[in-house]
Amino acid sequence: MAATSSSNIMPGFLSRLLRPFTTFTRTSVGPETNTGTTTTTLPENAQLCTVAAGCFWGVEHLFRKNFGGKGLLEAKVGYIGGDVKDPGYRAVCTGRTGHAESLQMTFDPSILPYTTLIEFFYKMHDPTTKNRQGMDTGTQYRSAIFYHSEEQERLARSVTERAQAQWWKNSGKISTEILPAGQWWDAEAYHQLYLDKNPGGYECPAHYVRGFGELKE
């Protein structure tokens, strides 16, 4: 990604700070079962992959851009990892709810392996900056992988160890949390597909695909 001047970053950064707050009733869906007002039916053999890598606008945009039509069946932004019921964006922004701005994806593992998604996760953000991506600072912007099975945990830890040794060894220690997926809350509707609806909207400068080589076993 080409270097971005501070004059180009600041307007977008300010637009993020000033983005609207809205209130509406959201559907809450747990990691495997519905707990809200509607039911999410996963296609047969589909799995969930949930990650946090800073501002969820850019995270969603990059994953959709790279894997849409290639095994990625659905992607939605929301909140996970906290201890407050039904959090809204305003509350999450305080950093006091414990939630992370996150992306939850439904994917077909026969087309798109879980490890491919996790490897891409380590390419598209900086996992060495604890509780920060670019100028976005706070626990809500932390790097995290929320696994949905013991197999996902094993694979996530394996990719993380190799990414540290091969990709990020000269940049610092990876601070990514690897935790079981708890209660998921969909973000407000205006956050979904935000950069598709708002071309030129704020994108965290830490969100771009690094030109790392193939991750070796």
Short description:
This protein is of the alpha+beta class and 217 residues long. The chain is 28% helix and 18% strand.
Mind explaining what this structure looks like?
With 217 residues, the protein is of the alpha+beta class. It is 28% helix and 18% strand. It has six helices and eight strands; from the N terminus they run αβαβαβαβββαββα. The strands form two sheets. The protein has a six-stranded mixed beta sheet with strand order 7-6-1-3-2-8, with helices on one face. It has a two-stranded antiparallel sheet with strand order 4-5. Helix 5 links the parallel strand 6 (143-147) and strand 7. The protein is globular. The chain starts with 5 loop residues before the first helix and ends in a 20-residue tail after the last helix. Residues 1-39 have low confidence and may be disordered.
Radius of gyration: 16 Å
Structural class: alpha+beta
H/E topology pattern: HEHEHEHEEEHEEH
Structure annotation, total helices:
6
Largest sheet: 6 strands, mixed
- Low-confidence segments: 1-39
Helicity level: 25-40%
What is the global morphology? globular
Strand order of the largest sheet: 7-6-1-3-2-8
Cα-to-Cα separation, first versus last residue: 27 Å
Overall strand count: 8
Task: Spell out the blueprint of helices and strands.
Elements: H1 6-17, E1 47-53, H2 56-67, E2 72-80, H3 89-93, E3 100-107, H4 114-124, E4 132-133, E5 136-137, E6 143-147, H5 150-166, E7 177-180, E8 185-186, H6 194-197
Parallel strand pairs: 6-7
Antiparallel strand pairs: 1-3, 1-6, 2-3, 2-8, 4-5
Helix pairs in contact: 4-5
